Amino acid sequence: MPALACCVDSAVVPPSYVFGAGDGSPLGFSGVPPATIAAANYVATAWSPDLSAALYRVDGWGAPYFAVNNSGNISVRPHGGDTLPHQEIDLLKIVKKVSDPKSVGGLGLPLPLIIRLPDVLKNRLESLQSAFDFAIQSQSYDSHYQGVYPVKCNQERFVVEDIVKFGSPFRFGLEAGSKPELLLAMSCLCKGNPDAFLVCNGFKDAEYISLALLARKLALNTVIVLEQEEELDLVIALSQKLSIRPVIGVRAKLRTKHSGHFGSTSGEKGKFGLTTTQILSVVKKLEQVGMLDCFQLLHFHIGSQIPSTGLLADGVGEAAQIYSELVRLGANMQVLDIGGGLGIDYDGSKSGDSDLSVAYGLGEYALAVVQAVKYVCDRKNIKHPVLCSESGRAIVSHHSILIFEAVSATVSKAATMTPLALQCFVDGLTDDARADYRNLTSAAMRGEYETCLLYADQLKQRCVDLFRDGTIGMEHLAAVDALCEFVGKAIGVAEPVKTYHVNLSVFTSVPDFWGIDQLFPIVPIHRLDERPGARGILSDLTCDSDGKINKFIGGEESLPLHEIEGNGNGPYYLGMFLGGAYEEALGGVHNLFGGPSVVRVSQSDGPHSFAVTRAAPGPSCSDVLRVMHHEPELMFETLKHRAEEMMYDDSSDDGESSMDHHHHRGNAAVASCLARSFHNMPYLAGASSCSLTAAMDNGGGFYYCSDEDGYDAAADSAVASAEDEQWSYVCA
């Protein structure tokens, strides 16, 4: 008789058998399914960092910037393929330096944490420029490439400033799509290359256009790109009024588009751009007012994450035809702006069949563009235009890493069941449910494992229905859960997926996962020399059922992870990679969770190969409250006053001196702990954080934070001094 049969047949349960005990196998279990044998062989295999690199596809999505080192930690190669061995940076060492207390030499910043790597950003810019330079030289192209960074991808000050600085040697510029983006671009480019483009996209009103014209007055190489035909009238009127000769571009609405999610804004029905009829109207109107020489740039965008160079060449070729026609019509054309679309490989598959990957590299992308433009222009005998691109995602995605901690893990686990309990369970079933149980027993005796699963699920659903009708009690539900769990284990079904609770808000830090199902590589940044012992999904801190990550690259619905309970290895850190574009700008304050702490880390010749050049804690509770127009100072005074009233009432039965003592000590405790709560980040804090707990025998009903484990005003004074306003109660 197959072993599973003796487990589910109550008539032949072995006396010593405890249902669901140990590893889920009963005494005398002999019929081991193939899946169980395969799993056993897998467990017997020795583990290594190389196996972890393959398991998490690090070499696919991470090259040339990320790898797994011999210590089992993720390492950063800040200069890409040119990184020397001694220049590699151990990511875990960065996290420890940043998060360790100041008393042991750390910076004391709380997690979650964004690590910015300006060396990676510089390498991405240089690699993109080199790819176009090589393609231009190899194809004998008679012009040059100078790109722009679309600041919408990440408007963070130091990111934009770094791009302007790193891109200055090759005239790299900026693209703006709104008035505040235009203001920051103007300011940053004042320190950049004077030939760098300032491309003004997006819908425009009179103020936007006036700013763009002013930028030209400030000797910035500004191009106003028309997104709507009506914008031309404003440009003409304001330029004449201000006596500033503009440089005008037009965004063309191409027929070429790709079918993925990111292609939805392209094609004839796209959100932006002018049709060929509208472009002809622009030419005619500019000619009428004597400004056709101002028309110098053609822009288009066929969608982000262009999957293949074939589709790219189709779009560029169509745009080059429009460009050549504009030259024929007398426009002073100089620049072809191919827009964004240069994709990155989020899942390491090098495939053009999904939104998560692309089937080309930087060199192939640049070559496809140069060849397509040169082919059209040579046929038309037209001077080769300056090539411009707006490749934001490809520039900034790699340079930013989100680090967060898994604080606990849970799994739904059924109770054990003794043979007597099993018999009682069967006796309490209805006739139909008992028939399902007999069918399960028969299938087990025949060794039909797939059929066992079918009948186990059917029995479970029938018991759920009986419970809803009030026919059976909770004990029966627990018993059927135990039975079904054992059946699954006995026939080799995978272990239950755990839920890892992470100190993070998906809505704030990974909004694209929630909004458009965008997947990012998520990997433990350490312990990669150990075999992952579980599979899990990630559940965030928010009170929202959508606050979880349950889809991962490779089509997986769970992630291989390590056990974190009782492992003795300290905190368990996970990293989300390739999230440097859009995530910070799109993140909100759902549940009033603000952004992470941020550090800027550069490669250095020090003992750990890195230096933290900038560090800032994430928004405090006060900061996020202010975002929603609350006034933390008044809130504090209200709570402090209420606490004083309550403690006075609690002390009214004591003697005079005793009342004064309790009153004073209680006020100090409340003020200190409330102040720290307003001052701290909203995320889970370490054990050393000040918590206000009830203790009726201490401090008038409140726990008083001592100097050792309470709020250290002196340690926080450096952070507080950087704020615009000082809170008088911080030192309470």
TrEMBL record:
<dbReference type="GO" id="GO:0006527">
    <property type="term" value="P:L-arginine catabolic process"/>
</dbReference>
<keyword id="KW-0663">Pyridoxal phosphate</keyword>
<keyword id="KW-0456">Lyase</keyword>
<dbReference type="GO" id="GO:0008295">
    <property type="term" value="P:spermidine biosynthetic process"/>
</dbReference>
<dbReference type="GO" id="GO:0009409">
    <property type="term" value="P:response to cold"/>
</dbReference>
<dbReference type="InterPro" id="IPR022644">
    <property type="entry name" value="De-COase2_N"/>
</dbReference>
<comment type="pathway">
    <text>Amine and polyamine biosynthesis; agmatine biosynthesis; agmatine from L-arginine: step 1/1.</text>
</comment>
<feature type="modified residue" description="N6-(pyridoxal phosphate)lysine">
    <location>
        <position position="152"/>
    </location>
</feature>
<feature type="domain" description="Orn/DAP/Arg decarboxylase 2 N-terminal">
    <location>
        <begin position="142"/>
        <end position="397"/>
    </location>
</feature>
<dbReference type="InterPro" id="IPR029066">
    <property type="entry name" value="PLP-binding_barrel"/>
</dbReference>
<keyword id="KW-0661">Putrescine biosynthesis</keyword>
<feature type="active site" description="Proton donor">
    <location>
        <position position="543"/>
    </location>
</feature>
<dbReference type="Pfam" id="PF02784">
    <property type="entry name" value="Orn_Arg_deC_N"/>
</dbReference>
<keyword id="KW-0460">Magnesium</keyword>
<dbReference type="InterPro" id="IPR009006">
    <property type="entry name" value="Ala_racemase/Decarboxylase_C"/>
</dbReference>
<keyword id="KW-0210">Decarboxylase</keyword>
<dbReference type="InterPro" id="IPR002985">
    <property type="entry name" value="Arg_decrbxlase"/>
</dbReference>
<dbReference type="GO" id="GO:0008792">
    <property type="term" value="F:arginine decarboxylase activity"/>
</dbReference>
<comment type="similarity">
    <text>Belongs to the Orn/Lys/Arg decarboxylase class-II family. SpeA subfamily.</text>
</comment>
<dbReference type="InterPro" id="IPR022653">
    <property type="entry name" value="De-COase2_pyr-phos_BS"/>
</dbReference>
<dbReference type="GO" id="GO:0009446">
    <property type="term" value="P:putrescine biosynthetic process"/>
</dbReference>
<protein>
    <recommendedName>
        <fullName>Arginine decarboxylase</fullName>
        <ecNumber>4.1.1.19</ecNumber>
    </recommendedName>
</protein>
<dbReference type="InterPro" id="IPR000183">
    <property type="entry name" value="Orn/DAP/Arg_de-COase"/>
</dbReference>
<keyword id="KW-0745">Spermidine biosynthesis</keyword>
<dbReference type="InterPro" id="IPR022657">
    <property type="entry name" value="De-COase2_CS"/>
</dbReference>
